[in-house]
UniProtKB/TrEMBL annotation:
<keyword id="KW-0472">Membrane</keyword>
<dbReference type="InterPro" id="IPR050086">
    <property type="entry name" value="MetN_ABC_transporter-like"/>
</dbReference>
<dbReference type="GO" id="GO:0016887">
    <property type="term" value="F:ATP hydrolysis activity"/>
</dbReference>
<comment type="similarity">
    <text>Belongs to the ABC transporter superfamily.</text>
</comment>
<dbReference type="InterPro" id="IPR003593">
    <property type="entry name" value="AAA+_ATPase"/>
</dbReference>
<keyword id="KW-0029">Amino-acid transport</keyword>
<dbReference type="Pfam" id="PF09383">
    <property type="entry name" value="NIL"/>
</dbReference>
<dbReference type="InterPro" id="IPR018449">
    <property type="entry name" value="NIL_domain"/>
</dbReference>
<feature type="domain" description="ABC transporter">
    <location>
        <begin position="23"/>
        <end position="262"/>
    </location>
</feature>
<dbReference type="GO" id="GO:0006865">
    <property type="term" value="P:amino acid transport"/>
</dbReference>
<dbReference type="GO" id="GO:0005524">
    <property type="term" value="F:ATP binding"/>
</dbReference>
<protein>
    <recommendedName>
        <fullName>Cell division ATP-binding protein FtsE</fullName>
    </recommendedName>
</protein>
<comment type="function">
    <text>Part of the ABC transporter FtsEX involved in cellular division. Important for assembly or stability of the septal ring.</text>
</comment>
<dbReference type="InterPro" id="IPR045865">
    <property type="entry name" value="ACT-like_dom_sf"/>
</dbReference>
<dbReference type="Pfam" id="PF00005">
    <property type="entry name" value="ABC_tran"/>
</dbReference>
<dbReference type="InterPro" id="IPR017871">
    <property type="entry name" value="ABC_transporter-like_CS"/>
</dbReference>
<dbReference type="InterPro" id="IPR003439">
    <property type="entry name" value="ABC_transporter-like_ATP-bd"/>
</dbReference>
Length: 375
């Protein structure tokens, strides 16, 4: 463990052989013995989390997210396979080594888990007292930490008088007290409103960038992953559904579980359009418009170029609906366009390949009767 009194703002990430803050799972399995029989919460999980990254874990309820997170500080023991922290199999640690591991792996929680009878100062000081730091060291470190999380003026306040966001800031300061290289976040923003969530995410990103701490977070809020994670793991029934860079997984989700989780983030069809969409062109003679969907998956820096799209498609092409997001600088999303039903369409394969591509995918998703020229 690093000395508890190291100045917070000057702590660089280590450059040892295995960089401090690395986590690896090797064929990890976890089975609980419940009264109804064995529950296979995790099965054959193998992957590494790079030091200094922000790693998100998502999945439906019961997919095994908490079980996986809790194996990293040995709150849960694997039933099979191994968990390596900085290259060391943590199953082999004795009691003293386990205490040291838990100082290197901080944790924050959805409901903050602060001691209500203690002040903010005392809550943050507690891990340092347990670690045997001197009063002078504790004082210096707690004041540094409270400054880091922006709560210098709340040192003597009890948690009940703090907002949710302030309580989580205390939780973060306490988790950082022992100078960890890894921070586990279990639904850390789920109890917060969107604005406060943003400020906590900014704080976590700042901690990751400035201190080089690996952050591993569970969340059911896909927007949180999109906002700050570098990589994401999707769990489904205790197994890896997929994992990779967030912009790739979110841009082109390969697994049905990922697509279901991401559905709220997608720009779906507006209800009125969905209700009018026909799978085939209407009978001859009826005016209609084709609905095209242009998809952007975040790959190769492709962005919607409105002028070139207009040039490539028939005159009178209209924008109906859609939008794009940016994830780590990569554009993903979709645009819905309508064109006259009789207008000839270009070869889409030429518009989705090579350096001149207009979109990653283009398809006709249906037809709409053009009764009132409304699309
Ligand atoms: N101590 C336990 N004893 C028995 N079964 C357990 C125990 N802890 C978890 N489980 C079961 O293991 C499976 C995975 O649970 P886990 O809490 O890891 O999932 P999760 O993805 O974090 O779910 P949630 O999003 O609902 O918190 C679930 O079926 C759960 O009921």
């Amino acid at each position: 463990m690093n000395a508890p009194h190291s100045p917070i703002h000057l702590q660089p990430a280590s450059c040892a052989h295995v960089r401090a803050g690395t986590v690896a799972f090797e064929h990890l399995g976890k089975t609980y013995q419940a009264s109804s029989g064995p529950v296979h919460a995790l099965q054959d999980i193998s992957l590494s989390i790079p030091a200094g990254s922000i790693f998100g874990i998502i999945g439906r309820s019961g997919a095994g997210k908490s079980s996986l997170l809790r194996t990293i500080n040995r709150l849960e023991r694997p039933s099979s396979g191994r968990v390596l922290v900085d290259g060391v199999d943590i199953a082999s640690l004795n009691e003293d080594e386990l205490v040291r591991l838990r100082r290197r792996v901080g944790m924050i929680f959805q409901h903050f888990n602060l001691l209500s009878a203690k002040t903010v100062y005392e809550n943050v000081a507690l891990p340092l007292r347990v670690a045997g730091a001197s009063r002078v060291e504790i004082d210096r470190r707690v004041r540094d930490l409270l400054a880091l999380v922006g709560l210098q003026d709340k040192a003597n306040v009890r948690p009940a008088r703090l907002s949710g966001g302030q309580k989580q800031r205390v939780g973060i300061a306490r988790a950082l007290a022992t100078d960890p290289q890894i921070l586990l976040c279990d639904e850390a923003t789920s109890a917060l409103d969107p604005e406060t969530t943003q400020s906590i995410l900014q704080l976590l990103r700042g901690i990751n960038r400035r201190l080089g701490i690996t952050i591993i977070l569970i969340t059911h809020e896909m927007s949180v992953i999109r906002e700050i994670a570098d990589q994401v793991l999707v769990l489904e029934q205790g197994r890896i559904a997929e994992f990779g860079e967030v912009w790739q997984v979110f841009g082109a989700p390969a697994h049905v579980a990922t697509r279901a989780l991401l559905a709220p983030l997608q720009h779906g069809l507006p209800d009125d359009l969905q209700g009018r969409l026909l799978p085939h062109p209407p009978a001859e003679g009826l005016a209609h418009r084709k609905i095209l969907r242009l998809g952007y998956t975040g790959a190769n820096a492709l962005e919607p170029d409105i002028a070139r799209i207009a040039q490539a498609l028939p005159a009178g092409t209209r924008l109906v609906h859609g939008g794009v997001d940016r994830i780590q600088g990569h554009v993903h999303g979709r645009l819905l366009l309508s064109v006259a039903g009789t207008a000839p369409l270009p070869d889409f394969s030429l518009l989705t390949q090579g350096p001149q591509a207009l979109a990653h995918s283009i398809e006709v998703i249906g037809h709409v009767l053009d009764l009132e020229h409304s699309l």
